[in-house]
Design goal:
With 263 residues, the chain is α/β, with parallel strands linked by helices. The protein has a single domain, classed as Alpha-Beta Barrel (TIM Barrel). It has 9 helices and 10 strands. Strands 1, 4, 5, 6, 7, 8, 9 and 10 form an 8-stranded parallel β-sheet that branches. A two-stranded parallel sheet has the order 2-3. α1 crosses α8, α2 runs parallel beside α4 and α6 crosses α7. The longest helix has 19 residues. The radius of gyration is 18 Å and the shape is globular. The two termini are 13 Å apart. 41% of the residues are buried. Bound molecules: zinc ion (ZN). The site of zinc ion has 5 residues, from loops.
Length: 263
Amino acid sequence: MSHFERFVLKYLGAFGERIKRKTLPPILTYHSIDTSGSVVSVSPGEFAWQMRYLKEFGFETMLLRDYLADLSAKRFTSGRVAVITFDDAFRNVHEHAVPTMQEFGFTGTVFVPTAHVGGNPDWRMESGLHMSPLMGWGELGDVLERGFDIQSHTHSHRSLAALNAHEIEQELEQSREAILTNLKHEVDLLAYPYGDHNDTVVDQLKKAAFKGAVSVEFGLNPPGTNPFRLKRVGSAHFTSHAAFRACLWGMYGPLLTMKRRSK
Ligand SMILES: [Zn+2]
């Protein structure tokens, strides 16, 4: 990141804190809470700083399902709200993120790839990403009891865009069955593995009575956003405290556009 970008971020974050009374609720995406420094990791200390920041500036959290219900009913969420999501259900989320969030009265939504519960994120092997164990059903049940929500991240964590309609249907069904059997919990939301989706995937989700799905595309969701193409704000962008603040106040998007144009 250049000095100029750092300067702009600092300015935008500070501007957001002072001027903006409210912002569109960002859906924040986290994966692993560890100290590996990988692009999809946030350290426990940094995560705690981010949660403290939310609390300090009067943010409340909303479960994705409640946020989506409001969005669909065109009820506009007012005030300072953040929707916090965790993809892959890493055990370190149960260990670090959940207790920290509880301390501040926050909740979040955990997306589980059900074939890998209690195992390892094998799909990360190829990309050389940090390997860390995933929660077992006991931990997932505990997360649910603490007021968090559990939703689907498919069964196998394959890219849905690479599968045919029947295979997609099976992914959704198996994942839903596993969560219902093990947690007695109904799911109707999905996080697309790798963010990959297309019209066939969305059609299958609707057929299976899912209510919405989150991608990994950066952005906020203004009223009228398609619930099956919800954008999020990924932790990979939280490269500094200033960047986190700019993301939270909805002021990171313009900088990103500027960066893309200059490439
Ligand atoms: Zn994933």
